[in-house]
Design a protein that fits this description.
- Chain A has four helices and no strands.
- Chain A is mainly alpha-helical and 92 residues long.
- Chain A has a domain of 61 residues.
- In chain A, helix 2 runs antiparallel to helix 4 and helix 3 packs antiparallel against helix 4.
- With 471 residues, chain B is an alpha/beta fold.
- Chain B has two domains: 270 residues, no CATH class; 174 residues, 3-Layer(aba) Sandwich (Rossmann fold).
- In chain B, 58% of the residues lie in helices and 7% in strands.
- Chain B has 17 helices and six strands.
- Chain B has a six-stranded parallel β-sheet with strand order 3-2-1-4-5-6.
- In chain B, helix 14 links the parallel strand 2 and strand 3.
- The chains are: A mainly alpha (92), B alpha/beta (471).
- At the A-B interface, helix 1, helix 2, helix 3 and helix 4 of A face helix 1, helix 2, helix 3, helix 4 and helix 8 of B.
Chain lengths: 92, 471
């Protein structure tokens, strides 16, 4: 993909993000933050894309750490958000 | 390749990415309302599963053993941490998760640069090199900054601002050095050493940037670091030509930026001003604000408070970080239940920056089974204080300080506050007469309609509860 197409996607994603998130009430700020923490765990993909062609012990080690970090973000983030949201109840 | 099935077709993988984006965006949309939020989170998680599985399909993705090891380690660390973390420790957890994300980005960009040097003997083309450098810098700042934020919240490092002489000059020099190294690489120098210098310089900058920031400013810092990690992930996506990283990272970048702006607005301070450290860049020595003169306060006892509360018709609780520290949220809810049984209407006034992260109080009270429709946002509850019989301030200080409204010289002048002082009676639960985090004296305490109940928040609420039950 050429750079300009990617930048187009980047800019549009930013605006979608602004639009979707600008209405989140204060009540949900913490869950929003921890859910977005889980979403930036998508850096895991970076580790996956590089590790197959990585050569040398150091690069492989660094990528395994990066994959572990990304996984912590994803599983930890989604789980903890779910735990929090489970507690938000309306008055009976 | 003996079976290049359609599964490995890059177009098929891109289609799976599109499904992932739909899930992310719908999931975030559902996070707008407490009723649908849990489903939203689950949908976003499904989107993530699509993105990860799709990426694994690429024919050049390999070394599945190492991938499995990384994922296993991450799961072994992440799952127990997420399961066992206490709700009061949530700000630390969010800081830590921010950090590992930034750390992953920094590592990935470093490896990508090293691999490019090794395979081609030259720098990557500029349209990849620039995002790599950006991701390395911002990822490293985010990693170290988040670790310091974690340390402060976990009280490994003192939470008060730590400032070196000439801090701002040091920061500017560091930033200049980091950018200079990046420009030298971009101009054509192939040097792993310079790249390492960038990572180290950015690491120092991350430390220096969070150390001078006080605990009360934490909600802004955590949001800002969240935005940083998202942006660095998007940059890594540009470097790796991966559209899923671009979109996922940018959504987080946008969300973090919005939260940062909302938090800064709730404190009536600009982001550069907060990053510069201290209130207005000046360090206020505690006690100096009161001109050294002792003004009388009225202290009260649990029995009196119980009577005031039990015979009120409307009570508003204004919680702050002190409630979180004392873990008093469950006792507070029991007290509210007991009062409601007696026909008292109890609501909670939540300041956007009360606590140490955006929405901190809401999570704690939700944990204590307080229904979310009892939690009122500042704009909603402020007009109701004049009709409130008792405002019960639990461990909150600066967010209730009328000086923000009235005293033009005050460092917090202009910050929107909860107008608790407009209630008929104000009861402040406080550990001692020490000034709040910002070290600013609070005139609320000396008002005629204010009484102070000294002690640990949880114990104080428990003794008031016991007295109410006796009535």
């Amino acid at each position: 993909m050429d750079l300009l197409t990617e930048l187009t996607i980047l800019v549009l994603a930013a605006f979608v993000g602004f639009e979707v998130i600008s209405k989140v009430p204060n009540t949900l700020h913490t869950p929003l933050m921890s859910a977005t923490n889980a979403i930036h765990g998508i850096v895991l993909l970076g580790g996956l894309l590089l590790i197959g062609e990585a050569t040398g012990f150091l690069d492989e080690l660094l990528l395994v750490i990066a994959i572990a970090f990304g996984t912590i973000n994803i599983v930890g983030g989604f789980l903890v958000t779910d735990r929090m949201l489970e507690m938000f109840k309306k008055r009976d | 390749m003996y079976t290049a099935s359609f599964l490995q077709d890059p177009d098929f993988i891109r289609v799976l990415y599109i499904i992932a984006f739909i899930c992310f965006i719908v999931g975030l949309r559902f996070l707008n309302h407490p009723r649908t939020a849990r489903r939203g989170n689950a949908i976003a998680a499904v989107g993530m599963a699509f993105a990860v599985v799709a990426t694994l399909l690429y024919d050049f993705v390999g070394d599945y053993l190492l991938i499995a090891v990384g994922i296993a380690i991450g799961t072994a660390v992440g799952v127990p941490a997420a399961r066992s973390v206490k709700m009061t420790a949530m700000p630390q957890m969010v800081a830590l998760f921010n950090g590992v994300g930034g750390g992953a980005v920094a590592l990935i960009s470093f490896v990508e640069y090293r691999e490019a040097l090794e395979h081609t003997g030259a720098n990557p083309v500029l349209e990849q090199l620039i995002p790599i450098l950006f991701a390395a810098i911002v990822g490293s700042i985010s990693f170290w900054g988040s670790n310091i934020a974690f340390g402060k919240l976990q009280e490994i490092i003192p939470g008060r601002p730590i400032q070196l002489p000439g801090q701002q000059i040091i920061n500017i020099v560091l930033l200049a050095v980091v950018i200079a190294c990046a420009v030298i690489i971009a101009a054509g120098s192939e040097s792993e050493l310079l790249f390492l210098a960038i990572l180290v310089g950015a690491a120092l900058l991350g430390n220096m940037f969070v150390l001078p920031i006080g605990g009360a400013d934490m909600p802004v810092v955590i949001s800002l670091l969240n935005a940083f990690t998202g942006l660095s992930a998007a940059a890594a996506g540009l470097a790796l030509d991966n559209v899923a990283l671009i979109v996922g990272g940018m959504l987080v970048g946008a969300s973090g930026s919005i939260l940062t702006m909302l938090m800064a607005e709730a404190m009536n301070r600009s982001i550069p001003n907060i990053v510069a450290g201290g209130f207005g860049g000046v360090t206020i020595t505690p006690g100096a604000a009161g001109d050294g003169e002792e003004r009388p306060v009225r202290s009260t006892g649990a029995a009196d408070v119980a009577i005031q509360l039990a015979y009120a018709s409307r009570v508003v609780v204004a919680p702050g970080y002190g409630m979180a520290v004392a873990q008093a949220q469950h006792t507070v809810r029991e007290l509210a239940d007991e009062l409601e049984k007696r026909g008292v209407r109890v609501d909670y006034a939540i300041h956007p920056v009360a606590g140490r992260m955006p929405g901190h109080m809401n999570v704690l009270l939700a944990e204590a089974d307080v229904p979310y429709d009892h939690l009122k946002e500042m704009d909603e509850i402020n007009p109701e204080f004049p009709q409130t019989d008792v405002a019960l301030v639990i461990g909150a200080n600066d967010v209730t300080n009328p000086a923000a409204r009235e005293e033009e010289g005050s460092p917090i002048y202009g910050m929107p506050i909860l107008d608790v002082d407009k209630a008929a009676q104000v009861i402040v639960l406080k550990r001692s007469m020490n000034t709040g985090f910002a070290g600013i004296d609070n005139p609320l305490f000396y008002n005629d309609n204010t009484a102070l109940l000294f002690g640990d928040a949880k114990e104080s609420v428990a003794s008031v509860l016991a007295e109410v039950k006796e009535l």
